[in-house]
Write a structure and sequence with these properties.
Length: 207
Amino acid sequence: MTPRTLLLAALVTLAAVPAALGQERLSGITLGQEAPEVAMPNPDGDTLRLSSLRGHIVLLDFWASWCRPCRMENPNVVAAYRTYKDSLFKNAKGFRVFSVSLDRKGGGEAWKKAIAQDQLEWPWHVGAVESGVNTAANTYQVQFIPTNVLVDAQGQVIGMDLHGEDLTAALDQLLERDPKRQAALKKERDQAARKAAKAARRGAKGR
């Protein structure tokens, strides 16, 4: 078995019970398949795509402002994001959350208010409050919320309906533990950050 296959097998074992529940909540997908694209508007009307986060571990999170269990779960999602967003993962740049709101047509203000109240500080929020047609919920066949999908850096589904300690355990499994590899990844990240900062300074001078 390849390292990738072994990792997937470990995660499948780890998430066996949540995955069974996830299959009931998300009947449109299965573990191991490529995560279907999500392309929907954010609160400002700009289209965001799930595929833009390729290279990261991504939690595709389905929720709504009117959903009390979702609001109760949000602190756990925030905690996971803050803990793991800059962590060193095996074959991944970091951890991101891509939130899909199931707020209904005309519910834009409630959606934005909930994002602020629950401190959902990541910028990847999409919904269908203008059209009323939630293509992501339809594609993934979301039956209940809150629910989520964990997607690896290559865009494949490696977990479903992971909450609280289950999500933390899954993310811990993906962390890079080898000290030499950690040092190499940190060096790569620092070099990329310096390169980006240098490019930004050049751009500022050119304006």
